Fold these 2 entries.
Entry 1:
Amino acid sequence: MKRVCKGILILLLPAILLAACGNKASLKDGYYTAQAAQFSHGWKEYVTIMVKGGNIVSVEYNAENPSGFIKSWDNAYMQTMLHTNGTYPNEYTRYYAGQLLSMQSADSIDALSGATSSYGSFQKLAAAVLEQARQGDSDIVVVDTSH
């Protein structure tokens, strides 16, 4: 019986390792960016990831205005949004980016209360940037994030 179990294990081990590595190898190393096609309320959102060893090792999610100023740096906007929505760009952008980094997928990320519009945009941008990483295409992909 031990011999049969060892034989089965020896036969299954390569398949298990291949399946585990197959998922890892589906993302090609490099930097990938997806950006919104249009400005929304004066901001254009984007997601940039860095893939190394088949894993996402860095995620940036943010938005910029036409002059290139980053949304999460805007303290006046932060104060207004915090008092109105209970969250602000520097909080929700880090939350969504952190979830993508830890899960290595955008499938199970929960919306943060007060940032559901950005959640919808993030989901579309994350899906597009992950597809770019699967293809190994480092061109910036432009995504229609309108709701």
Entry 2:
Amino acid sequence: MKVYIDLVMIVNFIFDFILLCSVNYILRRNVKFIRLILGSFIGSITLLILFIKMNNFILFIFKFITSIIMIIVSFGFKDIKYCGKNILYFYLVSMLMGGGIEFLNNQFSYSNEGLVFTNKGLGISYGIVLIIGFFMYLKYVKSFKDLKNHYSNYYKCKIYFNDRDLVEVNAFLDTGNKLIDPYSNKSIVLLQDEFFKEIDDLKPLYVPYSSLNNHGLLTCYKALKIEIDGKCYDKFLVGVSNENFFIDGINCIINSQIMEGLR
């Protein structure tokens, strides 16, 4: 049997790219497409190793390590929980896609007379089956997204501190976040401290705050505007959070007042 390695790599690249795009879409990771393409490319290149003779256990370990590398390259590594969730959804989507493609492939390739099944020899390429499976899967992804939006709100945001300093973050809309500067009546966006390391000429403002378990002064900075889904808001301050947010992939917390004031 002839095996065309170039076609196998192309199909594998398309399949990996669809999987990574699906994970990116479901978990709202909002990574750039170039990272997804690079992760898919790594998956297709490592396919060449499979032509080396090895036992099933070593092959399984190799495939698992390859998937971890693909996930880290595509989505980065923030912590074990973040990476583990990406890997979990990668395999869940893979099983769903693989099962759907196998079903379509069998439906198009075989016919039966009673209990006897024969190959019809229908000239439908595996790539077309992949595309059909992808569009079927989009329906599943949309349904999953609609369900998830009932309890969480993720947004891709751009915060402009001045004309040259811009940070892009994954933000979470927390309706319980009511932080407001009592002096200027400006709402406060919380941003992880790591984003302030490369920004110069910022003058801190200290805003008093209180919560159920703590109170004190919150270090804040002025910013020109925040852009969310193409709309902007400028009456806000950016507060420094020295702790990680306990939400996967989130490094910024916004409140409803900002969402209501977008224009």
